[in-house]
Every structure is written in C-alpha cells, then in structure tokens.
C-alpha cells in the first residue's frame, strides 16, 4: 500500500504539486476563518436562575424561593450538581449539567421545570429569570465611567439608558451588567404627621398612587371617514402635576398628594452596591459575550461603539476600558506561543543546515512544517475548534517531530544519490527509481514511528471534564499535524527530491563536516562501550532507579499557575457592615494596590448589581488590578500585594486571577484552588467548626489566603405584631404587612417616563426619626404609633446561606504559595482529621483543583499502561520478534530519566501537562530505537553482516538521522520550556520541559545502551 502511494506520487509529480498548491490555498482560507481565543471552550453546561425577592431576609429567601426552585430542578435529566446562594432579597441557583450536554437542551429542561414554580412564588417576589447564556470565559470587557462634574446619578442614567442598550445591540453580546452610581427614581415620601393632620390613611394614599402615572386606552372612534385611536394621557414627569392628584375629599375641600407627601427626584435606596476606579467613585459596565463568539472581533466592535457614544455624553465624562480587557490576554498569549513556534522553527532550520550542509535538502525537509500546520488548521476549523494557546501549543510541541519523517526520507535519498554518483555512468540508476527505492526503504519506520507517537498521545483523549476540554484540542492539533507530515513524507517529499536533488550534475557534495566529525568520535566511543558493557548497563540502571526515587518525592498539581496580567482580589468584611463602611475599606485597599509599581490602575465592585449572578453582599468587594511585570517576577509581585493588603484589619483577603478564579469556581463552586466544604444544618455551629478547621490549617507550610466563608449572623430589627392589640384595633395582618412594606421598604406604584427612559415611582415614608413612631391606621379612623400594636426588637439572622445539592454548606477556602498543591492538601486532610471533631449530621468534602488532578492522573496512568502495551504490539508486528520490540521499548526508561530530572531542576512538581509530556515522550523516544534496530536487521539479512558489524555500521549509518530528529524535536521545544512564565505558555511549558529532558537522556543513552543490549541478546540466540 505504502509502496503504491510512493510510486503513484513519483509517476504523477505534477498532480502532487498541484494538490499541494490547492492544499495551501485551502489551509490559508481556513486559517483566516478560524476564531482566535485564549483557551478552548471550557464551559460546563450551567444554567443560572436568578430571583429578586423584594427585601426578604436570607432565611425567608432560602425557604420560600430557593428551596422550591432547587426541588424543581433536582433530579432533572443530566443534572450533576445544584448550587445555590440565598442572600438579602436575592436568590441565585446554579444548575450544572453533565459535560457534553447541549446548553440549549439544558436551558429548555430548566425552563420547563420553572414554569410551575413561578406560580408558587410569594407575593412581592419576581418570577425566576434565567441568566444570560454565556461561557466561563464570557466576561470580555469592563468599561468605567468617571467624571469630575457629572453626578453619580446622571452617570448611572447614561450607563443604563445610553451605553448599555447600545452595547447590547452589538452582535455577540449576551449581557451588560451595570454596577455603581445612583439609580434615579421618583419618590413620594409620605409624611405620617401630615397624614394624621388631614386624616388621610395609608390605604387612601395607595389607592391614589397605584397606577397613577399610566396612560389608558379609550378604544377607537370612526368619524369623517377616519379612524381615531383614543388615549387617556395621565402620564407625566412634572412633579407639580404628580402632586396635584386627589387623595381624599372632605366635603368641599380636597386633599392632594402634595398636601401629605414630599414629591421629588431621588436616588434608589437601599443601594445594592458601589463601584470605583482608582479609589474614585465610578460606574462600571461588565460586558459578557455569547458562547462561540470571537473575543477579538467583539472587542473591536465594542471599542468602535464606545467611540461613537462619546459624542452623546458630556465632555467631562471619561470612558476607560483598560481595567479588564480579555483581548489583551488573548493577544499576548497567542503572540507568545507564535513566537515560540517561530523560534522553534529557526532551531530546526539551523540543525538541518548543520547536519545536511545542503540548502536543497533543508528546504525539502522544511516544507513539511507549513503544510502540516495548514492541514491542522483545516481540520480544526472543520471541527469548530478555535485557534488558541492549546492548539498552537500542540503545533509548537509537534514542530520538531514534523520534519522527522521528511528528514529520514531525504537523508536516505541523499545518501543513495551520493552512492549512485560514485558508480560508473552505465550502472547508475534513474533518479525516479532511485528515489523510489530509497523512500521504500524507510517507509515502514516512518509510518510505524508516527503510529507509535499517535498511540502515545491517545491517553490525552480519555480525559474528561474541564481538563479534557482544555487539553484534547492540543492533542488534536498535534496528531493532525503529525499525520499530515507523514503523508507529506510519503508523497511530496519524494517528488521534491526527484526534482531538486536529481538535477545536480557531477559529483555530489560530501557529508557535512559536523556529521563526519561526530561519526569519528562516536565510532571510537561505541567500540569502547561494546567492549565494557557491564559498567554501562549498571550505570544506566542506577540512573533509572535514582530518577524513580526522586519522582516519588515530587509534589503534584492540577495545572500550572497562569500569568494573566491581572489580579482579581476579593475583600470581605464582617456581614452587617454598612455599604458606606465597606466602600471605605475597599477604597483603602485600592490606594494600597496603587502603591505597587507594577499596578497602573484598579477598579472595584462592592456589593452586587441588579439580577447579577455574582451575588456579593455589601460586605464584599471585588477588585480588578491589571499589572505589567517589570524586573520582578509574578510571585514577587503577588507576595508584595499580599503584604500590603495584610494591614486591612478584620478583612479576609483572597487573591486570584480573572480566568483562574472562574475555573476554580466552576470546579468547586469556590474561587480558590482548595475548597474544604463543611455540610450541616446550624449555620452558627458550622461557622464555629469552620474556624476550628482554619485554626488547624493556618500553620501548614505553603498555604495562602486561608479564609472561612462569612456565613455568620448579621443584625436585624424584627417587628413582631401583638395580635391581641391588632384584633382590638381592627387591624388585619395584610394591612399590618402592607404598612411595614410601604413605609419602610417602599412600593413601586408606577413608572415615570422621560424621553423613552423609565424610572420607578416609589411610595415610602419620609421624615420619621424612629420606626416605633410611625403611625398606623386603626379601623375607626384613629391613628396610633406602631409601638402600640407591635414589639420592635433587635435580633440576628443569617447573612448568606449557601447550599449544594439541597444541603447547607460553608466553605473554608485556600490557595497555595511556593509548595505543591497535593502536599498542601495532604497536610490539610491530616490536620483536620486529627484536630477537628465533627458532630453527628455534619460532614466534610474536599474540592478544588486537586480533585480534578487526582481524577485526571488516574485516567492518564491507566491509559498510559494501555498505550505502552499497544506500542509493544506495533513494534512486534513490524519486527516479528518480541526481544527486538523489547529492546526498542528500553527507550522509555531512558527517556524517563531526563524527563524526571528536568522537572526536578525546574518546577519541582508533577502537573497534568507534565504527565502528558511523559506520555508523549514515550512515542517520540521510540523513533530512534526503531531506526537503529531496523538498520541492524537490514544489514544482517540483506548484506550478511555479523552482529558486531551490523551494530557498528548500522549505528554510524543512522547517527545522522537520529541526531537530526532528536535535535529538531528537542531544540524546537526550548522556547516553550524557557518561556514558561509568559502568558499562553504556562500549560505547554511543563510538557516541553519533560520532552526536552527526556529526549536528551534517551538520545545519549540510546546511542550506547541499545547497541549493547542488542548485541547481548543476538549473541545468546
């Protein structure tokens, strides 16, 4: 079959060249169409349900809103986890589906379940709303509005009614949430004293105001051949006209709304949150994209839209977009990986020029790289996979291996042409036949080595969950490019050899000086080793044992830490703190961060926005702090930030990065790499146990940002009716509840429209000093103080109630610093087990990155064993000899030696990418052994050489291609290995380090160990 492919290509050379040109055109077209992103789609199918609960306490939200929703969606098809958060006046439920579930199906399932729940919601609670369909990396831009003159109310109005609608109209935008500023509303502030003076009851005011500013429909009138639509126009934004509404008639006198209330334009109260930029009050807009939308293109469109809108805003309003811009991270990450690709390609060119010393052979070998890349781009585009750091990383890791097949073929053709030119003119073989024979000679090693490398990468495709979503595209890019390079080596490479190498006249140039020089010294060393085999074998075995022992001492982690160029910092104070005080603490934190030289700007959100799934309490601030490294490492800057923020007394600090902490939240529901989940029923007892866990863990080496979730009780005022007094005064419970709700919380009775903008018209009490002095209406027309019919007592209630799978939970979260994740987790489990005793009905679960790391490691180790067995089978099928297949597999332990020592001197820990590096190394390293054993066997069978002659001559003959393939594969990885701290290179770098170290050790030891073992086994036979 392979011979026929080579023969067909050489007999149809023009067709092969035309097909190549078409492939290039198609590849360039596909590359232009493929989306660019930072990572593949990592989104676990999640549907977010949000419900505004009208100022209810957290316990009431849990019982009346969250629990019915959880009950409805639990047990639905494909649901793997249900998480919820119930806080003051707001409920968020996250319904997480199995990986691979179609998000539209998931949303349909949840929508059907909610249809019945909406009818069960208590009065005053809005219908549950599904959050926008977005991905975990959906936040693409944060826009800041600041001004020296324009009020925060006007800034918020511009944001809500000019900027937000314009941004939402941009294709690909899923949601724009607005945070901070003052929300404008029209207020009817009723005066209890004036109402008592005029004898106006609350029911009189509510009857007057409910729906007061709504136009009405008068139907249609036909007259004079025309059709007239009849409208009753009562809507107005004139405060005087609003106040002129009649509340009550006393004989001939009329009491208007203005007589008993102050009507004005004010700010919505209570505020849900504030925002700032560089410690100055601001309004922040967070733009979230839809799934499968190009971040780069969308960001360009958003920037254009913002530029267009600047003319519609006052001159003093400043729009800033440098707080968080995901496109910057994408561009820097992709640029860094592309730079590594280019630098790797330059190393490949240098190696080929040194060893081949011929421009034509170098060009023929290098053609494989762009063609393989273009084929990979066609396949990625067809599969709907974006160009991202993972796919580019797969190509960067493959770049050295892509030329290997072509090198073996070209080097063999080149050698045959040299030998052919040394023959008499009459005995020389025609170039087509010569190229065919030379290519046919190495076809099986080429194909089998490719198959073995693909098999070694197969375990990667068994990964599931987030790690599978992230790393499988890397494997697809690598395998696709490698298969393409093999196809090129069997078709285009022989054709180019026949054209470019067959045209030379006269004597072919001799071998490159470097190749001759290496062969000379290698010949001497090989003979010496073959005469002293025992020390060599013992030394190699000792190195392997030492490497294994060292490997067992290494820590482990899930993924390397990213360098996203921005910190995401959570600062939480004690629940019950006022928004003003929390805002003050947040502003102080901003000023401290701006003292860090690398941080140029900061922006903060305190509290939450309306219908925002990031349901932070007013005691929590989230700060975005983009930075640029200049002289100091990422770790140094991070430690500096921790040190500066440690002066904030009474505040919990948690430092992450925008994408990293979203990945953590998706894995464990917590924005930290380690989550200790405590499940129970009594929140006070859970908080006490949580602090015991924190105390047990605080001295563990390598632990950082150790916090207990602030689920503690906050102060409450409880108004408890005295039912016998309500009965005596003829006050019904619904009337009592309405009195409390309207006077204290306020009721939105209508809307006021200004040039198409709608603002709430709210009725609430004004001008009162104490709640107890509010006056309530009695059945006989009298008015009595609230304190006469109700007790007002101080109490406490939960601030926030978090649940997972219908159980209350509290989370003790932590990150790591300077130590392997697995070691820190092991110490945490030991400390908690020894020092914390759990009451009956309480339990602990450990979640976070380490959980995924353990799961992925088990899958990889199991599938790796299977892959090695398949590699042995492939080798056996080629050589039909188990011992020879076993000799080639000796490259695996030889490669492990270098890979392990590479980790020891660099990261010091085994991550999932490092494990994948070991697995892929097995396939790459066997190529050299195959070349040697194949040549030994050919010399013995075809030329009748003795074992020693076959070993010596075969090793010298294959030294050139072995060194070239090893050096191209290894040196192409140097930029990735050295650039591990650069954005985009973090995941590929551990893989590159392992493969680089393994290739160095396996190539050096392979050159001597394989000949020694082969001779011993052959002599025994």
Backbone structural class? alpha+beta
Head-to-tail CA distance between termini: 33 Å
Report the portion of residues in β strands. 15-25%
Helix content: 40-55%
* Computed CA radius of gyration, to the nearest angstrom: 37 Å
Q: How confident is the prediction overall: mean pLDDT?
A: 85
Put simply, the count of helices is: 34
Shape verdict? elongated
* Extended strand count: 33
Low-confidence stretches: none
For this entry, give a set of tags.
1021 residues, alpha+beta, 9-stranded antiparallel β-sheet, 34 helices, 53% helix
Please provide a written account of the structure.
It is built from 34 helices and 33 strands. The chain is α+β, with helices and mostly antiparallel strands. The strands form 9 sheets. Strands 1, 2, 3, 4, 22, 23, 30, 31 and 32 form a 9-stranded antiparallel beta sheet that branches. A 6-stranded antiparallel beta sheet has the order 14-13-19-20-18-21. Strand 8 and strand 9 (226-232) form a beta hairpin. It is elongated, with a radius of gyration of 37 Å.
